[in-house]
Specification:
There is one protein chain. The protein has helices spanning 58-67, 74-77, 85-97, 123-132, 147-160, 177-192, 212-221, 235-243, 254-257, 260-270, 283-296, 317-324, and strands spanning 2-20, 23-37, 42-47, 71-73, 113-117, 137-141, 166-170, 199-204, 225-228, 249-252, 273-276, 303-306. It is α/β, with parallel strands linked by helices. The radius of gyration is 20 Å and the shape is globular. The two termini are 27 Å apart.
Amino acid sequence: MRYQFKFRPYQRRFLRSLTTNHGKWDIREGIILRLTDESGRVGWGEIAPISWFGSETLKQALDFCRQLPREITDEIIFSIPDELPACQFGFESAWEMGSGGDNFITPNSSVFYSGLLPAGEAALNQWETLWQKGYRTFKWKIGVYAIADELKIFESLIHTLPAFSKLRLDANGGLSYEEANLWLWTCDNLKANAELPIEIEFIEQPLPVEQFQQMLELSMSYETAIALDESVATLGQLAACYQQGWRGIFVIKPGIIGSPSRLRKFCHQHQIDTVFSSVFETAIARLAALQLAAELSRNNRAIGFGIDHFFEQEETWLQSLWNDL
């Protein structure tokens, strides 16, 4: 099959800077793809790289798009190299939504979301807005400020959140081994307290990627679960961590993991415990990502796509992008 190929770069400003251990993020940049097959069916895709997380850079993605011919084939789409995982996802999901999309379904509305809280004290004011929107699982960024300050805020947060909420702590690889132990010990102590009305679900990526063995060790030493995130940014990393013995939680960011068809195959083969998560993509990549989450999620875990409050609404955004250029 042959497809007419067009693409447009985009920029979207966050309503407020996103602060993580990797620094401040102000503008989300990416590329929207359009594939039109011989019968006129259109498939939309999105390349939304996060280079500091393990994907290609935006420049590498743009260079790849620019060197492609105006007409591309299935063979080109399915032979994109592993060094371009966000491109693999963007092109393959456009192919699935368009010509290959007979099996493409709308994600199940029963899937529930976790809402992302800002780092630091701002979380104490933000959770209520998200709760009113229906969120019951929250993710809070840690490893951003001094640990003593964060532990104090954490103490306030767990006693402020309503009963039966779930809380995830996301360090983005920013803790030292001693700090990770302290967080896990603190969470284990809280779990032992039967009167605590909320559940601490897991700590996400406590240590840097290169400290995999220490994270494996910690996962066996504490009751509180650990989820890998940056360590499993791409399919190659996911497979490597599984082969090295990780049987805990895998946070999968479909937008940068690589080929959706190969991800499906891996998840079906190994039945891993997954949490699907956003890369602050637009509605285009989100639809494809939610499709994967609906198919592959196990253990009824909330998916990490509660990020709408970080951007202005985007109803006419795509139309404007396509028509203005």
